[in-house]
Description:
By secondary structure, this protein is mostly helical.
Amino acid sequence: MPVVLRSQSTSSSKTNLMKKLHLVIPAALALALAAAPVLPVFTQAASALPTEVAERQGEGRGRRLNLTEQQQSQMRQIRESTKARIDRVLNSQQQAELQRARQERRRPNLNLTDEQKAQMRAIRQEARRQMDALLTAEQRQQLEQMRQQRSQRRQQQ
C-alpha cells in the first residue's frame, strides 16, 4: 500500500508542477508583452545623444556625403536648433535626467508622455526634412543607401 501512495504522491506532485508551469509560462509571456511598449522610448533617445557624439556622427556622414562647408554649417545649425526645441519639450526633471545621461554617456530614462513623444517625433521629422532639403540628388541617394544599410544592420542584431 505505501508504494501506491508514494506513486500517487509523485503523480500528484508532477500534476501540481505542471499546473504551476501552466501558470508561470503565460505570466512570463504577459510580462514580456507588457514591457514591449517601453522599448520605443529607447529609440527616441537617439535624439538625446551627447551633443559631441551627435555632431561627430553628423560630421562623419558629412564626409561620406562630401558636404560643402556651407552644407556642414547649415546641418550643424539644424542639429543645434533641433536639440534646443527638444529640450523645450521636456520638463525640468526630464531635462536634468537628460543632462545626467549626456554626462554619463548613457541613454536617458525620460518617461515621456504621449504628447511629448509626438512633439519630439515631429521635431525630428522636421529636422530630417530640412537636412534632406540641403542635399543634392546624388547626396540624397547616398544617404538613403546609408540609412538602408543601417536599418539592415539593426535588424541583424
